[in-house]
Amino acid sequence: MEISEDLRIARAGKALDQRARRAARRVGLVAIKSNRYGVALPPFVSGFALVNEAEARIEIGQHFDLTADEVIDFCAGFGK
Known about the structure:
Structural class: alpha+beta
Strand order of the largest sheet: 1-2-3
Radius of gyration: 14 Å
Strand content: 15-25%
Number of domains: 1
Largest sheet: 3 strands, antiparallel
Number of strands: 3
Distance between the termini: 47 Å
């Protein structure tokens, strides 16, 4: 059975989102996506914010404007 292209793209997007969340966890941050946890934003806004829960502050992306790739890149250089 062949997987449709839309399903393949959706799975790739979810996998990239999970990579971003893992990268954030490795450096002690939490990656929150705008369409999760009851955050009410316009439907066209679907990015990430990085939160430092220990210090109760948003490190970057307060407008949920980070892509998953940007989260991964930021976390790679975080604390260096």
